[in-house]
Design brief:
This protein is an alpha/beta fold. It is 36% helix and 23% strand. The strands form 2 sheets. The protein has an 8-stranded mixed β-sheet with strand order 13-12-11-7-10-9-8-14. Strands 3-2-1-4-5-6 form a 6-stranded parallel β-sheet, with helices on both faces.
């Protein structure tokens, strides 16, 4: 197996998950990290046994480094992708790829021009329950799908937003509860049910101060398939342990609800012997706040690891990663349309 030398742009909380995922993988070695401040770069590099840089150009010249993961501020992704692509590095970029579809389109074009791979990061696609859920839908076990409830009722403290001047800004964060936290489950919804035809929404800032973006939003969506759905997204829903993200899909032959990575509902008209095993292995939800619902640091890196493994497998085999630039763009396009509706008093927006 070809082994890739990998560098990280960023040294914050998400960079820790990237570093842990890379170190847990076969065929990958973390060799370098970039942060704008010398002290932060050194601290991160010492923690993970790699070389730290505070000069981006020097970082990109690190010997034999072939892949760069990007976990800087969302609104800086385009700049970092551009620099990495022009240096000939393949790229794995945290969500959202960028804060607007226009900037994502520029990223895709720059990577194509420089003949480097661009892979996005949506770790929830890579848990076992997601594969099982997707397979059940593709096999028609829910029949004609008619409804989908997507709920991300999370909590972020005022201190969280006050911890960085970029947090809660349109230019650098790209949005609030929808773009920053709920994008994972919104991507999962699109992955399971396909594209949205239209959306109307309402939202605002209710429980926090001093930020530009929303901490609560509700959207009504119509899928191209004819199904309807509701998205509830918030960072203003307090919980001591963190409320799980959930997605509940109903059809005329059954209903499945996934709560984080467990099934709380698996109710299908046509029973199959394998259903008992699915419920025994994936059917009990225990709230351990392990998916970042109340604490962004409380995330297991395993899903990131699988996401990265998919990207590197694609590189080794000359294939397209599951989440390429076009896939990574879909959730941003929908969230942008939701914002447009919110700013226009709930007007119906077509995608």
């Amino acid at each position: 197996m070809k082994s890739f030398k990998i560098g990280i742009i960023g040294a914050g909380v998400i960079a820790d998950f990237h570093a842990q995922a890379i170190q847990a993988m076969e065929g990958a070695e973390l060799v370098a990290a970039f942060a704008r401040k010398d002290e932060k770069a050194k601290t991160f590099a010492d923690k993970y046994g790699c070389t730290g840089y505070s000069d981006l150009s020097e970082f990109l010249r690190h010997p034999d480094m072939e892949v760069v993961t990007i976990c800087s501020v969302s609104g800086a992704h385009l700049d970092h992708v551009t620099a990495a692509a022009e240096a000939g590095k393949h790229i794995i970029c945290e969500k959202p790829l960028e804060v607007t579809t226009e900037r994502i389109d520029q990223m895709i074009g720059i990577c194509e021009k420089n003949k480097v791979s661009l892979s996005g990061v949506f770790p929830r696609r890579f848990n076992d329950s997601t594969y099982i859920f997707k397979k059940a839908i593709e096999e028609g076990r829910l029949g004609k799908i008619v409804l989908c409830d997507t709920a991300i009722k999370w909590w972020r403290s005022q201190e969280y937003y006050d911890s960085g001047a970029w947090r809660g800004t349109w230019n650098l964060d790209g949005g609030g509860a929808l773009m920053n936290q709920s994008i994972h489950t919104i991507d999962l919804m699109l992955h399971l049910l396909g594209d949205v035809k239209s959306v109307s929404a309402s939202g605002g800032l209710e429980a926090h101060e001093g930020i530009e973006v929303e901490d609560v939003a509700v959207a009504i969506v119509e899928f191209k398939s004819g199904a309807r759905g509701v998205i509830q997204a918030s960072t203003a829903c307090f919980s001591n342990t963190g409320l799980p993200a959930s997605i509940h899909i109903c059809g005329d032959q059954g209903s499945i609800m996934m709560v984080d990575d467990k099934f709380s509902v698996w109710d299908l008209k046509n029973h199959q012997p394998a259903d008992e095993k699915i419920l025994s292995e994936h059917g009990v939800y225990e709230n351990t706040s392990g998916a970042g619902a109340a604490d962004p640091k409380a995330i297991d890196f395993l899903w990131h690891q699988r996401n990265f493994e998919n990207a590197l497998h694609a590189l080794r085999n000359g294939e397209k990663p599951e989440i390429d630039g076009t896939e990574g763009r879909r959730a941003v396009e929908l969230i942008t349309a939701i914002y447009q509706s919110m700013k226009n008093d709930g007007a119906k927006i077509s995608l």
